[in-house]
């Protein structure tokens, strides 16, 4: 389904006609599209019907069919209410399985609208061409609700403008053909509650033959090497694809631009498409460039001006670009620092500040502003994808943006970024890894690195060289909606998983970044985002995300800053500040937004830690700094932010930054430092030599080899919390009863940040659900989602329950969320576990409160968010692999205990940090004497630097303790047990075994 950003109106209503509109004598009768007399159902694609959409769960409007005495057409109207903060509206898609509609005989579309006189614009969008209504070109216009009562609104098709965002890549033909129409959509006003009603959507009038022809060029930019020839294809296109009735003349001339006539052969001429010419006919114009005496030059432009008679001219004047050549920065054999210095010395202030500006791909349309504003970077936010959402479409889209950068003076390539936080999760069909919380549960740094390598390979194969990952937050409160983005609550665990940086980037010195399977990594969110206090957020209805982290300097260093020291040592290329505020006890400053903390970004990150990459802001992150926009810009840049993510306000940012520099409030030195850092990474990525996508690795996206890595990660992430009577592993011969909301839902098991920002339930991307994987391993299996099927005759039940997807503060507890299982899940657990031995799997981004049911559950598994490879879950359920996962966070008894973390003075959880039973492994025998001997051996291994032996000895001791303590978890057991896990991760093996011995004595 379409999830779009706010529509930008291309044209206003040309006529708002009162009640009745006279029909010209030669007009065909109107053709109904919707009468709303129940002939069109409420249904989602691929079925035909009406459906709603919006930017989050609260933004889709309500829809209903209402009987009205004043209905303009028939007895009923479509009406509804809305309260939209981001974007929202409704769509009528025609059924995918049926032929598209032909509207080409008509002049336009009209509808009856009940005005509320609110002065708001209502956007109307048409879906033209393509495979179906969700893969069509989008054409838009709008009208203003500045009247009361019913009015019929007529909009000629000529008023609709091509939408430059959220399109099939490059468009289908950029022509409103009208012969393959897939429906329409209405985007409703934002910012205030409202109501609406409409009726009688229909086609009217006769097609206007004189306005339906357009002249198009195959590109807006034509780069050529000096002395080469640019070939410009000029195409005739018509609405309805019919031949033209009158001739169309195109005059062309090379004029203006930065090139002189000594750089090319001036060109002037004319050609005509005669009457009867078919739509799609193409003529060619060739522009010849010349080699001059200059050995080194910046790029030069030769505009080809087209004057069209009898049709619409192209929206842009095509530009022939003579490539830059001979300049030192273009010499790949020079050291990067020399290339940076040379390029920087040539750049104007506008060009330099352009490099510091990042825009959303949905905001730049076809990309003209990339050239006009010398933009340095684009990104795709969560769910900002091409249509169709395929690897080829991604590469084509990004190449089209890179082509725009070729029209700038120094042809500095864009660096394109995306949130690939658990695989290339925006791409349908990509390998979706477990979220970080699951990776932390594996305790397998080598596997973490492999997941990063798979992600990098799939991301780079679609033309994207930059990943906004990994998140190095240390989650300290499971009420936080971003908990699953963390590897765990212990900074030592987070540090151990930072091998993912090498998986993404390769060698620490950056020499691998140019490779076709590596990307620039981003350590985020600097610093303290996982420590925000519940109730401290002031962002909308968020309760904890983007709030305030209050710590002493010692706590800051030990907990939240430690992972960044490791990331810098690992050569991470970029760092992203947090939305949150940092309040350091005793510094007298109170809470300060991280985007404004020069002491932390300039002082600690770049100074003390020696970070030499660049700092990228979060999405509109500078806007949360107190003060006006100019103040936000100078404060953040002076604090050390090198590139600002200003998705839709990129022009405002660029203009403001130039003004701040000219006013002396931001120094040229600060600008040069920022741009040098950015250019350094672009050179390391090899973008100057290879700006376009290298899709040679695209065939491996979602491949069996990549999915095997994700499958192993899913298997190793499963944490066995309880296993009374050896219920697990299951046997293939057993009759298994499966129930629960998350057993057969690929969207739920993948979580947020999957295809869209918030993720969604359902079959959203290829993969294997837990149920599907279990079917492959079971001879006899019954599935009943709500446990309504008869339970008799089964040997064991598996109930898969947990959360539905969310991301960021939308998932905060208290913001419409809690840590309790749903009523349906609780009922399924109760019914199945009362009828047979049962295992309960919790698929979630954080612990769920299960204590009141724990006694009735035989086996309990924390499955986290395993991603698309449900086979990994089945591997441990059926004993193909042993359960080896360990809790990356403390599992609380109640919400009242939160926050609860390893090392707390009062620590009495349901299951402690580091807990994790195993299967297919014989638990070592022995008691205190055995543990004492293990402690001595572990101490010796520690002193000898024998880490593998030390870890193995601690693991042996841990299994002994878990065997005894499992049924009798108390604070006296939990606290030293969790402490031992932290000691293990910090290499203090002897002390870890001594703590485990303490836990054993208390059990």
From TrEMBL:
Pfam families: Calx-beta, CBM_11, Glyco_hydro_3, Glyco_hydro_3_C. It comes from Streptomyces pseudovenezuelae. Residues 33-206 form the CBM11 domain. Residues 217-307 form the Calx-beta domain. This is beta-glucosidase. One of its GO terms (molecular function) is hydrolase activity. PANTHER family: LYSOSOMAL BETA GLUCOSIDASE, PERIPLASMIC BETA-GLUCOSIDASE-RELATED. Residues 719-918 form the Glycoside hydrolase family 3 C-terminal domain. The keyword Transferase does not apply. Coiled coil: none annotated. It is an enzyme of class 3 (hydrolase). It catalyses: Hydrolysis of terminal, non-reducing beta-D-glucosyl residues with release of beta-D-glucose. It comes from the Bacteria. InterPro entries: CalX-like_sf, Calx_beta, CBM11, Cellulose_Degrad_GH3, Galactose-bd-like_sf, GH, Glyco_hydro_3_AS, Glyco_hydro_3_C. Its EC number is 3.2.1.21. Keywords: Calcium, Glycosidase, Hydrolase, Repeat, Signal. Belongs to the glycosyl hydrolase 3 family. Residues 349-680 form the Glycoside hydrolase family 3 N-terminal domain. Residues 47-74 are annotated as: Disordered. Residues 1-24 form the signal peptide. The keyword Transferase does not apply.
């Amino acid at each position: 389904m379409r999830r779009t950003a706010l529509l930008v109106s291309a044209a206003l209503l040309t006529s708002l006609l009162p009640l009745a509109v006279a029909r010209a004598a030669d007009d065909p009768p109107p053709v109904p599209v919707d009468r709303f007399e129940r002939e069109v159902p409420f249904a989602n694609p691929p079925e035909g019907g009406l459906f709603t959409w919006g930017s989050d769960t609260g933004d889709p409007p309500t829809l209903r069919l209402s009987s009205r005495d004043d209905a303009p057409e028939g007895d009923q109207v479509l009406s509804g209410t809305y309260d939209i903060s981001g974007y929202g509206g409704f769509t009528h898609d025609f059924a995918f399985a049926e032929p598209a509609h032909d509207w080409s005989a008509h002049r336009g579309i009209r509808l009856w609208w009940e005005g509320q006189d609110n002065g708001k614009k209502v956007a109307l969008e048409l879906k033209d061409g393509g495979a179906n209504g969700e893969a069509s070109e989008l054409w838009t216009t709008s009208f203003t609700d500045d009247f009361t009562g019913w009015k019929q609104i007529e909009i000629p098709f000529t008023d609709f403008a091509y939408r430059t965002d959220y399109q099939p890549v490059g468009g289908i033909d950029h022509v409103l053909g009208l012969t393959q129409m897939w429906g329409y959509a209405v985007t409703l006003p934002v910012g205030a509650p409202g109501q609406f009603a409409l009726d009688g959507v229909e086609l009217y009038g006769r097609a206007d033959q004189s306005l339906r022809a357009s002249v198009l060029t195959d590109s807006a930019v034509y780069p050529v090497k000096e002395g080469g020839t640019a070939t410009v294809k000029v195409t005739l296109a018509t609405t309805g694809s019919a031949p033209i009735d009158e001739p169309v003349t195109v005059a062309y001339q090379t004029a203006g631009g930065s090139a002189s006539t000594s750089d090319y052969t001036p060109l002037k001429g004319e050609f005509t498409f005669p009457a009867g010419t078919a739509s799609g006919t193409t003529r060619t114009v060739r522009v010849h460039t010349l080699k001059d005496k200059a050995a080194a030059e910046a790029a030069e432009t030769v505009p080809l001006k087209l004057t069209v008679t009898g049709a619409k001219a192209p929206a842009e004047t095509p530009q022939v670009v003579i490539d830059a050549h001979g300049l030192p920065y273009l010499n790949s054999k020079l050291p990067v620092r020399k290339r940076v210095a040379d390029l920087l010395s040539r750049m104007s202030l506008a060009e330099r500040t352009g490099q510091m500006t990042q825009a959303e791909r949905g905001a730049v349309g076809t990309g003209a502003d990339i050239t006009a504003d010398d933009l340095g970077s684009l990104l795709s936010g969560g769910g900002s994808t091409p249509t169709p959402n395929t690897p080829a479409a991604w590469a084509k889209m990004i190449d089209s943006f890179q082509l725009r950068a070729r029209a700038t003076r120094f042809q500095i390539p864009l660096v394109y970024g995306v949130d690939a936080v658990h695989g290339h999760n925006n791409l349908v069909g990509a390998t979706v890894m477990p979220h970080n919380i699951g990776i932390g549960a594996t305790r397998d740094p080598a596997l973490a690195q492999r997941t990063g390598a798979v992600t990098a390979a799939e991301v780079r194969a679609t033309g994207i060289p930059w990943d906004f990952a990994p998140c190095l937050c240390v989650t300290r409160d499971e009420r936080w909606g971003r908990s699953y983005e963390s590897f765990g609550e212990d900074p030592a665990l987070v540090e151990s998983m930072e091998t993912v940086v090498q998986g993404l980037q390769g060698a620490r010195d950056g020499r691998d970044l140019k490779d076709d399977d590596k990307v620039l990594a981003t350590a985020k969110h600097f610093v303290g985002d996982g420590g925000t206090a519940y109730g401290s957020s002031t962002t909308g209805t968020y309760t904890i995300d983007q709030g305030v982290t209050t710590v002493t300097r010692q706590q800051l260093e030990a907990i939240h800053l430690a992972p960044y020291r490791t990331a810098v040592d690992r050569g991470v290329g970029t760092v992203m500040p947090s939305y949150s505020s940092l309040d350091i006890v005793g510094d007298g400053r109170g809470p300060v937004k991280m985007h404004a903390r020069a002491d932390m970004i300039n002082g600690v990150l770049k100074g003390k830690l020696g970070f030499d990459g660049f700092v990228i802001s979060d999405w509109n992150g500078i806007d949360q700094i107190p003060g006006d926009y100019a103040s936000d810009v100078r404060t953040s840049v002076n604090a050390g932010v090198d590139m600002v993510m200003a998705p839709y306000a990129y022009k405002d940012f660029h203009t403001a930054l130039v003004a701040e520099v000219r006013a002396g409030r931001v120094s040229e030195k600060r600008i040069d430092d920022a741009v040098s850092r950015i250019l350094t990474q672009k050179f390391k990525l090899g973008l100057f030599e290879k700006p376009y996508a290298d899709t040679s690795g695209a065939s491996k996206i979602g491949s069996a080899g990549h999915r095997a890595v994700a499958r192993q990660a899913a298997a190793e992430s499963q944490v066995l919390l309880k296993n009374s009577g050896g219920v697990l592993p299951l046997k293939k011969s057993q009759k298994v009863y499966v129930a629960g909301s998350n057993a057969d839902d690929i969207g739920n098991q993948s979580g947020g940040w999957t295809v869209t920002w918030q993720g969604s339930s359902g079959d959203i991307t290829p993969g294997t659900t837990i149920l599907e994987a279990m079917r492959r391993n079971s001879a006899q299996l019954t599935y009943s989602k709500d446990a309504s099927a008869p339970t008799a005759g089964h040997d064991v039940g598996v109930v898969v329950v947990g959360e539905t997807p969310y991301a960021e503060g939308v998932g905060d507890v208290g913001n419409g969320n809690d840590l309790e299982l749903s009523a349906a899940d609780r009922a399924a657990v109760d019914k199945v576990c009362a009828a047979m031995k049962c295992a309960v799997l919790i698929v979630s981004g954080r612990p769920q409160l299960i204590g009141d049911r724990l006694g009735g559950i035989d086996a309990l598994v924390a499955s986290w968010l395993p991603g698309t490879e449900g086979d990994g879950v089945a591997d441990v359920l059926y004993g193909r692999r042993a359960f080896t996962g360990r809790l990356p966070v403390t599992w609380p008894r109640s919400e009242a205990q939160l926050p609860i973390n390893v090392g707390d003075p009062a620590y009495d959880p349901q299951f402690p940090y580091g807990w994790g039973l195993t299967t297919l492994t014989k638990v070592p025998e022995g008691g205190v004497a055995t543990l004492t001997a293990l402690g001595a051996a572990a101490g010796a291994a520690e002193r000898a630097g024998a880490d593998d032996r030390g870890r193995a000895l601690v693991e042996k001791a841990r299994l002994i303790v878990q065997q005894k303590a499992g049924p009798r978890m108390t604070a006296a057991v939990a606290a030293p047990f969790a402490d031992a896990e932290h000691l293990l991760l910090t290499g203090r093996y002897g002390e870890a075994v001594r703590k485990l011995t303490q836990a054993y004595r208390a059990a």
